[in-house]
Write a structure and sequence with these properties.
The protein has 88 residues and is an alpha+beta fold. The chain has three helices and three strands, in the order E-H-E-E-H-H. The model has no long low-confidence stretch (mean pLDDT 89).
């Protein structure tokens, strides 16, 4: 199955690199595409469990799904993730 998740705090290619690396580490998640312009992540997954795992991973990196709480902590995490993504 394929899905697209709209996320918060996505600003640049550095963010996209961090997101791609972060969720590609989850087993059976494939064909990851991050669209900075519309703040979305598209990917293939096999089960609802894996979909939820991706959402949790995104949140832990500082990129919660649209509609979820976006605390100062998530925003700070996204800035750190962005900087790391730019360096790697």
């Amino acid at each position: 199955m394929q899905t697209t998740i709209h996320i918060q705090n996505l600003k640049c290619g550095g963010c996209a690199n961090t997101i791609t690396k972060g969720i590609s580490s989850i087993e059976t998640i494939n064909n990851i595409a991050v669209n900075v312009e519309d703040s979305s992540v598209t990917f293939d997954y096999l089960s609802e469990e894996k979909l939820n795992e991706v959402k949790e991973k995104l949140k832990s990196l500082g990129y919660p799904e649209d509609g979820e709480a976006n605390s100062l902590m998530e925003k700070a995490k996204s800035y750190v993730s962005c900087a790391i993504g730019k360096m790697s």
